[in-house]
Every structure is written in structure tokens, then in C-alpha cells.
Amino acid sequence: MAKVLILGGGFGGVVAAERLAGQLSDEHQITLVSRSRQFVFYPALVRLAFGKCDKEDVSFDLRRTMLSRSVNFVEAEVAHIDPFERKVDIADGQVEGKLPYDYLIIALGRRLATEKIPGFYEHAHHLLNVDKAIQFGKAVEKLNAGRVILGQCFGARLPVPVYESAFALARLFETKGKRDLVTLTVISPDTLEAELGDVAGAAALRKKLEAQKIELLTNFRIESLIKNSAITNTGRMVDFNLLMLVPPFLGSSAASYMGVTDGEGYIKVDWTMRVKGQERIYAVGDCVSFVGPKMGHMAVRQGEVAAANLAAQIEGHEPISQYIHEMRFVIDEGRGDGLYLHKELGQMIRRPSDKVPFGVGPNARSRSIGRLRIQN
Ligand SMILES: Cc1cc2nc3c(=O)[nH]c(=O)nc-3n(C[C@H](O)[C@H](O)[C@H](O)COP(=O)(O)OP(=O)(O)OC[C@H]3O[C@@H](n4cnc5c(N)ncnc54)[C@H](O)[C@@H]3O)c2cc1C
Fold it and tell me: Model pTM?
């Protein structure tokens, strides 16, 4: 009997748990630990902020879903992972103390490093959780004129909601007949090409922004905030009446002392999703070290790959699945239109010693870029 522990109840952890439950026989024990019993569907938070759906539409009860799939659910905070003793320290929640494991899947997402931007807490909105998205929506409702800035900090890895919010604001103020009273400015910490990882995609997005009279400031790295002003690394200052800013991301602190993370705290894995140097530990989702944006579809695919390989390992087989790092996203413009981007971010090569191909290098090639009609 193997004890499998999965840490984190987001896209990566939930998919890994469901797949493992389907692939392992009942003699094995699967337990998912997460700090909240709610699964949140983050891609819907822009719609939530703009009143297009309700709080109840963006989350569901994880405990019930897991139990229906014979996965134990523990609502608790993971403090520390000890790969030598094969134990996880639980700091707070339903249980406290150490949870032992035979195999581990880490799916703890990323951390918001708001502390890197002085003034963030007091002067910026973000929409990276349900409550913050609702607060941002309320602030938008109150605004009648002035400048709205939307953007990412350097180190943030999530462009989609920035652009979706900008398009949603353009639509909203147009409907209210106040579009001429509001300046919409999107700031990017890099060039648009670097932010999206694609030249053709950047050109298409730029056109859409221009069409909606949304100003774009690139290489604009916000380093601090004071009331109604953002200050960059070069001392530039831009005033705003409302700011929605995606803060810098870092890896989960629970994995930071394992000696398996890169400079930003993300966990280094191979293409089977196994943590480098660790026989019995896999990692998936936003917490892993891959180039490019951090997205839910990547977490889902990584969860599937980790589950398949872990099930094979428990049965005494070699890895059977590998992850191909691809970026796919739709920036929903509303009006039934959007921008679809699909790009391969890693290239597969086979070294003679590899059982399965291992990947190298970012930006291997762009596969396709085009406009997509979004079905309402
Ligand atoms: C506003 C917004 C819009 C987005 N739009 C898109 C989109 O259009 N397309 C797309 O593909 N992706 C999108 N994403 C990104 C996507 O949501 C993430 O990539 C995805 O959620 C990552 O899944 P994950 O399982 O790795 O991490 P998460 O979903 O962050 O899950 C991590 C889990 O771990 C738990 N956890 C964390 N730390 C601890 C701890 N110490 N102890 C216990 N539990 C812990 C958390 O509570 C959570 O349940 C969007 C994200 C946001 C915020």
C-alpha cells in the first residue's frame, strides 16, 4: 500500500488527485491537503469583477468532490516539506504535526510577493483572489473620470487578466457614455513581444488596444507606489485614479528549504514532472520552474503527466508520459471576439541516456496565431 500526498487544491493538485484515483487500485491511499476547501476557477475572476457572474459561480467545495472520488481531503496549511524523513509539516488547520508520505505531488501554486513593491498594499488593486476581484469591481463602479492603469510588475507571469480588464473597462465606460472621460493605460514591465513571448501575437494585440484607444506603456517597471502615483525603476512617475496591478510572483515558501528550487523559488522538474534529484516527489502547476506565463492549462496537463508517471512508478514501471511546454490563451475582448495565442515554449530532444525525451530551451517556435471567435 502506498501513501500518496498531494499538496495544493488548485488546477494542478485536483487534476493529479482525480487522475491518480482513477489509475491506482483501492489499496493505495491518496490524500489532498489544501489551505482552503474551496476550489477557485481563477480565469473567471475578471468576469466576477465586472459583475458578469456571481461568487458562487467561480468556486466549488473541494472536500465533497474529493470524497466522491475516494481521495481524503485535509484542510490545513503546509509549512515545510522534509524529503529526508518523507514528512510534511502541517502548521495550522484540521490536523497539525507531521504527515508522512511514500510519494508526494507538490501543487502549491505561486506566492504573491507584494512586499517587493512598497505601497502596493495601500494603493493598488489586484484581482488574484475572489475578494480582491470584487473589491476591484466596486472601485471601478465608483470611478467616473480620470486615468486607470492596469499592468504587471516585473516578475509577474500573468498577462491575460490585465488585457481582459482593459477591454472590459473600455466597454463599460463606452456603455456608460463616459469613455472620453477615462484614459485607459496598460503598462508592461517588458516589451509586449517579451510579455506575450510572441512577435505576431504582440502585433495583433497592439492593434486591438489601439482600436479601443487603450494606451500602452512598455518597459515600465513599477517599483513603488504612493497615493495616486506609480514610480518606476528609472524614476518615471505616472499618476492614476485607479490602479490594478499584478504583483511579482515567487515560488511557494513551503518548498524553499528542499534544495530543489531556482533563484525565484520555483521547483525544478524534469519533463516527467519529477522533481530533479528526488525519486519520489513530483511538482506541477504554477510552483514549477518553466519559462513563460503561468497558466491553468499548463497546471492541468502537468497534473495529468505527474499522475500517469507516479501511478507507473508505484506499479514498478518506467515513466510513461512527458510534458510538452506550450502556451495557449485567449484574451477575451468581449463583443464575442478575442485573441488566441498558441506557442510551443520548449523543444524536445532525446539524449542517448534518456528513457524519455527531455526538453531544452524556451521559444522553440511559434505554431500559430490568429483571431478566434469566442462562443458566448
Ligand atoms: C485573474 C486570473 C485569470 C487567469 N486567467 C487564466 C486563463 O485565462 N487561462 C489560463 O490557463 N490560466 C489563467 N490563470 C492562471 C491559472 O489560474 C493558474 O495558472 C492556475 O490556477 C495554477 O494552478 P495551480 O494548481 O498550480 O495553483 P493554484 O490554482 O494557485 O492552486 C494552489 C493551491 O495550493 C493551495 N496552497 C498554497 N499554499 C498552500 C500552503 N502553504 N498550504 C496549503 N495549501 C496551500 C492554495 O490554497 C490552492 O488551493 C488566471 C489566473 C488569475 C488569477
Answer: 0.92
